């Protein structure tokens, strides 16, 4: 089995609720993701703007960058077979009300506050996972992980 990496982030609205933070951490473990790295951090507004540059000009951009730099976040590098799509499935759709309607058991449906304050982030492809992991964990080398750590998790 080939392990895939993804970036998962618990956003400031969820980190602000200690029991929710705990529940989301448990959900990661219960779904058999390997926690490769984990980091608590706070973004400056400029970090937020850089990370979401693709959304510049959209009506929600200001509130998005404001929100993402409003308080602590927790970022994880997760590994699993099909980690990218599995984490996205657990999160549910971007928009909270759509999530509640179409997939009520997902994280965003259950805990999201609004379309912007939607509890979690997950990479949407292995290419964006690579870019986003480098953004959050600049000291992390995928190559080094593949050589030195990944073999220990082979079944
Ligand atoms: P996702 O986080 O599901 O990958 P995205 O990449 O399209 O969604 O957008 C990034 C974030 O921007 C999203 O998590 C919340 C915010 N956002 C996206 N679309 C929005 C909308 N229509 N209204 C408010 N916020 C939105
Ligand atoms: Mg996205």
From TrEMBL:
Pfam families: NDK. InterPro entries: NDK-like_dom, NDK-like_dom_sf, NDPk6, Nucleoside_diP_kinase. It comes from the Eukaryota. SUPFAM superfamilies: Nucleoside diphosphate kinase, NDK. The keyword Transmembrane does not apply. Its cofactor is Mg(2+). Residues 3-144 form the Nucleoside diphosphate kinase-like domain. Its EC number is 2.7.4.6. This is Nucleoside diphosphate kinase 6. It comes from Silurus meridionalis (Southern catfish).
